Amino acid sequence: KEMTVRDALNSALDEEMSADPKVFIMGEEVGEYQGAYKITKGLLDKYGPERVRDTPITEAGFTGIGVGAAYYGLKPVVEFMTFNFSMQAIDHIINSAAKSNYMSAGQISVPIVFRGPNGAAAGVGAQHSQCYASWYASVPGLKVLTPYSSEDARGLLKAAIRDPDPVVFLENELLYGESFPVSAEILDSSFCLPIGKAKIEREGKDVTITAFSKMVGYALQAAEILSKEGISVEVINLRSIRPLDRAAINASVRKTNRLVTLEEGFPQHGVGAEICASVVEESFAYLDAPVERIAGADVPMPYAANLERMAVPQIEDIVRAVKRVCYRSVPLAATA
Amino acid sequence: KEMTVRDALNSALDEEMSADPKVFIMGEEVGEYQGAYKITKGLLDKYGPERVRDTPITEAGFTGIGVGAAYYGLKPVVEFMTFNFSMQAIDHIINSAAKSNYMSAGQISVPIVFRGPNGAAAGVGAQHSQCYASWYASVPGLKVLTPYSSEDARGLLKAAIRDPDPVVFLENELLYGESFPVSAEILDSSFCLPIGKAKIEREGKDVTITAFSKMVGYALQAAEILSKEGISVEVINLRSIRPLDRAAINASVRKTNRLVTLEEGFPQHGVGAEICASVVEESFAYLDAPVERIAGADVPMPYAANLERMAVPQIEDIVRAVKRVCYRSVPLAATA
Amino acid sequence: DSIITVETSIPFTGHNIEPPSRTVETSSFELLTFFKDMATMRRMEIAADSLYKSKLIRGFCHLYDGQEAVSIGMEAAITRKDCIITAYRDHCIYLGRGGTLVETFAELMGRQAGCSKGKGGSMHFYKKENGFYGGHGIVGAQVPLGCGLAFGQKYNKDEAVTFMMYGDGAANQGQLFEALNMSALWDLPAILVCENNHYGMGTAEWRAAKSAAYYKRGDYVPGLKVDGMDALAVKQACKFAKEHALKNGPIILEMDTYRYHGHSMSDPGSTYRTRDEISGVRQERDPIERIRKLVLSHELATEKELKDIEKEIRKEVDEAIAKAKESPMPEPSELFTNVYVKGFGTESFGADRKEVRAVLL
Amino acid sequence: DSIITVETSIPFTGHNIEPPSRTVETSSFELLTFFKDMATMRRMEIAADSLYKSKLIRGFCHLYDGQEAVSIGMEAAITRKDCIITAYRDHCIYLGRGGTLVETFAELMGRQAGCSKGKGGSMHFYKKENGFYGGHGIVGAQVPLGCGLAFGQKYNKDEAVTFMMYGDGAANQGQLFEALNMSALWDLPAILVCENNHYGMGTAEWRAAKSAAYYKRGDYVPGLKVDGMDALAVKQACKFAKEHALKNGPIILEMDTYRYHGHSMSDPGSTYRTRDEISGVRQERDPIERIRKLVLSHELATEKELKDIEKEIRKEVDEAIAKAKESPMPEPSELFTNVYVKGFGTESFGADRKEVRAVLL
Ligand SMILES: Cc1ncc(C[n+]2csc(CCOP(=O)(O)OP(=O)(O)O)c2C)c(N)n1
Ligand SMILES: Cc1ncc(C[n+]2csc(CCOP(=O)(O)OP(=O)(O)O)c2C)c(N)n1
Ligand SMILES: [Mg+2]
Ligand SMILES: [Mg+2]
Questions:
Q1: D178 to chain C: which residues are within 8 Å by CB?
Q2: If DSSP codes are grouped into helix, strand and coil, which group holds residue A111?
Q3: What was the pLDDT predicted at A87?
Q4: B5, B176, D10, D80 - which has most CB atoms within 10 Å?
Q5: How large is the greatest C-alpha to C-alpha distance in chain A, in angstroms?
């Protein structure tokens, strides 16, 4: 059986709302319009306007209200139409949500989910294409999840809503319409994935690729191409950027001895940089080649189709980088 | 001759305002109160309220106004009382300032400086202690400067004000009162430092430490201690986090073969991670030991003095890390 | 060209201010220009709709048809020393400020000849030399930015004003209230133009605002409610507002207007409002038809002459599209230009940094 | 305990609402409690000032002396099912909600016995079981947060209200207007309490606000101006506001009050206002002296008895300080607790990650 990511998210919301009356959803166009991207379709009809709350276009205000409601013990799911708009509310996400449990020595927990599409879509230009994974995942107190497949979407969103801490849940608009196979287990309403655990999407022995969100699909496609050339690629779907599954990443690199990191966001201080640092810290002696980093170009997102294509990783970029880590003569490897 | 960082900043502002009538300063308490930290002392008297503009406590609004004024061709210097409050205005810094020149293909340049104290101070708790260097420096379109000494403060602030692009200028409250020697050249009103160039604060041959802002002083103190134990440390004052002086960092590591990165901010996706990735990418074969990363603890800033001390790097942390990279037996080095 | 005197459709309503007179002066030339310019805008937006459907325009595309009188009336009252800034619904504002059809279509299709060389896209048009500062995608952000332009005008003693356009949805944004307070404290020549088309995406004004009287929302700042479907009323109001702003600081103009299209191309625009509502506005309040009637009733042109103008416009638009299509995509090297004005010779990176990098000059 | 009837110092002024009567009912017990509680707050803040000067308190420290009547009067009108949220000037609000002197001083000195175990500091006090939600350092942020608490009260049908306190400086923040609009749209039981002490740091209200009539700044939301130095007026207003909010949604209470100290410890508080202004308020409007006079004029206690109470308080405060000083600094392991409620066994790092790391449970 197959299910789109959109339906996976929708069903996860539906099931958690039905299981826990404290769960409610708020955001722009989530109700009568059925969601700007239809993730909340049908929920207003089913749960009514008290629990599916259309808001004005006032992110700072409604995010603050959501966080306050979480202080009070409700379990809000706050939708940002896209995460670009979360910048208007970022002070509440960081200072009001992430830090409260710590500042209050555990008195004020903040069980809230901030969700919506993140990163590049198609043709929407510089102000609507930013990836916020590395920013949010730098902040202690937050958990940051990045689903790829329908399994991820269902399992991680349910985990996020049940979690007692603030979770930033980064979806991808271009994945909403994609279908993935789903088992009976995944479809069961009790299904839930652990936070902080990566998934080996494809096992391999020559090189490790770490990826999250849409880039997992690209990594898998690159791995398929490379397998035909005799290179066995292990693809890690990070699923959680904070906590980052350092153990899984390092275990894989200790096996393959080579690493390519992949992400759509800006490169500097990105997820790839952190993974590189983590592997250098914990598995330096196992690295047979320099870590290769594939990331969004270091420019604001251009609109023109040809430039936009250059601004985000393409499968050929991944293939090329993998070949470099595998074949290039590396002085250290040579002497080892 | 000596000069405090406060006076260095104040004199730089004064000179640039006197040189260019387009330069004005705005922010909370910059005028009649003479600056919350007295950086703008005397400027209101000298330049009047049109050019030294006290604002209400409305960061989103006044930052937007500043950026708009820069669109129009003025050269605003926007003071945040601390950079923690810049989160209320971050959408304007990123979407309105950093991206405009690109989106308009060069029509709308944004000659603006955002400045104020950044990072940990003393005893001000979780909401007033965050370091924003890695966030801002991840964004193409911004330049991010981090002065340490009075020379830096003068030279970089003057460069920032004269620069045609948006500059995020991260000061440190605990450095304001520190004095540094200044030469006649530094005191000359024509003095200016290049953006994007690091400074070797201390030459050494055994290990490289990269640092910025207050941590440069800590690195220098650690280097002094280590020199007594026969370890020669090269200390790089990054000065600019974006553009990052990758050439200077890599040149140093190619000489010393060992690297410790140092910063006060959160570790994940931090400046240290980027520097580690950059060195792995460009100088992997030169590394004789895993890169060591010293950073702020991965927790919100606690208030209690003992915990706060544990939450930011101390000189003994640096000394310990340097010893580890220098003495630890590294398998790769051993086989090389 | 003799002066023609016309009454506005309805009286202005003032908040904390005495509204201007309903009697507007115009001329044959002005009315015919209004007609031609609005018809061009209308045709341009309809053509953009088709280009989008044939996948030549990507991403978002927010059309202005129905709201033309706001741009046209405003331009008739001001000069190009005055500044305008708006949101993402910017194609016609750009045209009103002297942009060309070719630049518009080329930008929409992401071509070199576009007003932002194809790098900005539909939401990011600018024409700085004529006082147009964009083209902004973040709801509400353009209001403080516009107050900043007004700050610049006052700082430079330019005796000019800035019009910042925002929607009924944007009218609830906090940064608007922050900017308004500072504009009032500092007497900035800032004119906040709320284009109330009664919906922010799929949300009717009253569902998003406890008080949908946007001209009153400035509280201590005066406001004026204007029929935004009547270009002459808009002209009168903007003239009045400019005089006010130069002397007394900020003022809010609420333009009662309507968008015929959905919010952007993915919105059919018919789930949250009735077809009757839309056709009712078209029949009774259409800004172009209002001018057509005035032209005919004053016998400034015949029905046939107006139809010929429209035919001519159709041709112009088609020619512009053809020309825009001839313009090539940007050079790949453009990926790295304009990140900075001054790049200091530092390196910038593509997705595969080992293969694609550039030195920023 | 018989009922005593008192007139408030001045009448209330309403905005979009009929104000309550000036006649307030109180009792001997209430007046003596007001006196004792306010005198305790006053003494506590003076003691904090000394502790700061002897370097036992670090960082910021925002004192409440002068404003005590706001907390005291509010508490007299509400229950602990009602919520309160405030900014950084939070010590006395905490005390009013049932916090202790020892917890206060211990937190100020960063000790284990502090209300946030020493991890929050001066600006971050909470007492959730009594409906006190902090203690927030970012100007304005507590207002939407408070509306969120009110949202929760309404969602849970708790028939309780939330008081969110903010300063005259904070009153210009955009997020306040955003939250107010939603509170009004959704009829939230939200009471916005503007503690107008006439200065935001060094900025006089009129320099930061075009309209300093904060009780009117809600525009379409009703408001009431209250003498915040008169605890009985505050009580009357809060009672009135609670009834209103439960039935009709949000309301703004502007409390005209005064802070005697500077903004925080680094501000002498004397560069932007005259010493005469401060001593004038002390002499004519001091909230404790007002109650003292009432107690004496109604012969509820003698001057000597009141002095004895004050002496007693002095002792209590000194004892609390001594006790707080005995409390140790937090255990080093506390660095890593409370980052999450649920840490999933992931590792967290100290500055030197190879030496200091912890598993988060
Ligand atoms: C801060 C922010 N939030 C949400 C959006 C998504 N969005 C784009 S336009 C829009 C509706 C705006 O309505 P209105 O202000 O009435 O302008 P109109 O589109 O009617 O011209 C929304 C919600 C955005 N661009 N920015
Ligand atoms: C967003 C933000 N900007 C600036 C500050 C610094 N700051 C702290 S308190 C304060 C003054 C607030 O004045 P007011 O709201 O009148 O409250 P009061 O201190 O008088 O109680 C300022 C500017 C801050 N904490 N948060
Ligand atoms: Mg609208
Ligand atoms: Mg105040």
A1: 172-174
A2: coil
A3: 98
A4: B5
A5: 68
CA C184–ligand 4 middle distance (angstroms): 20
Domain boundaries in chain A? 2-187, 199-335
Q: What CATH class is the domain B199-335?
A: alpha beta
> Quick check: do A2-187 and A199-335 share a fold?
yes
Known active-site residue A59: yes
The verdict on B273 touching A (C-beta cutoff 8 Å) is yes
ipTM: 0.98
How many degrees, rounded to 5, is the angle at CA C167 between CA C166 and CA C172? Answer: 95
Return the residue of B nearest to A266 by Cα.
Answer: B138
Closest CA to B333 of B291, B290, B288: B288
* Catalytic pick among B16, B128, B173, B308: B128
Q: List the chains bordering chain A where 3 or more Cβ pairs fall under 8 Å.
A: B, C, D
Q: How confident is the model at residue D227 (pLDDT cuts 50, 70, 90)?
A: very high
Give the 3-state secondary structure of residue A163: coil
Ligand found nearest the CA of C87: 1
Task: Locate the ligand 1 atom nearest the alpha carbon of residue C197 and give its number.
Answer: 20
Q: Cβ(A64)–Cβ(D144) under 8 Å?
A: yes
- Ligand 2 pocket: which residues have CB below 6 Å? B 28, 57, 59, 81, 85, 88; D 89, 137-139, 167-170, 195, 197, 199-201, 263
CA distance B284 to B300: 33
The class of domain D3-329 in CATH terms is alpha beta
* Closest partner CB to A102 (pick from B126, B273, B292): B126
**Of C340, C114, B261, residue with least CA distance to A298:** C340
Where do the domains of chain C lie?
3-330, 331-361
C-alpha distances out from residue C257 to C75, C262, C271, C286, Å: 17, 14, 19, 9
pLDDT tens for the 336 residues of chain B, in order: 999 999 999 999 999 999 999 999 999 999 999 999 999 999 999 999 999 999 999 999 999 999 999 999 999 999 999 999 999 999 999 999 999 999 999 999 999 999 999 999 999 999 999 999 999 999 999 999 999 999 999 999 999 999 999 999 999 999 999 999 999 999 999 999 999 999 999 999 999 999 999 999 999 999 999 999 999 999 999 999 999 999 999 999 999 999 999 999 999 999 999 999 999 999 999 999 999 999 999 999 999 999 999 999 999 999 999 999 997 534 444 443
Q: Does D118 touch chain B (CB under 8 A)?
A: yes
Q: Calculate the alpha carbon distances from B255 to B208, B285, B318 in Å.
A: 9, 12, 20
* Band of residue A335 on the pLDDT scale cut at 50, 70, 90: very low
Bond into C121 cis (ω within 30):
no
Neighbouring-strand partners of residue B209: B235, B260
Helical (H) or strand (E) element with B220: helix B214-228
Q: Flag if D221 and C210 touch (Cβ within 8 Å).
A: yes
Residue at token pair 């990176």:
C349
Assigned CATH for C3-330: 3.40.50.970
Give chain C's contact residues with D (Cβ, < 8 Å): 172-178, 181, 184-185, 207-211, 216-217, 219-221
Q: Which residues of A touch C339 (CB under 8 A)?
A: 298-300
CA C170 – ligand 1 centroid, Å = 6
pTM recorded for the entire structure: 0.98
The CATH-assigned architecture of domain B2-187 is 3-Layer(aba) Sandwich (3.40)
In B, minimum Cα distance to C346 occurs at B243
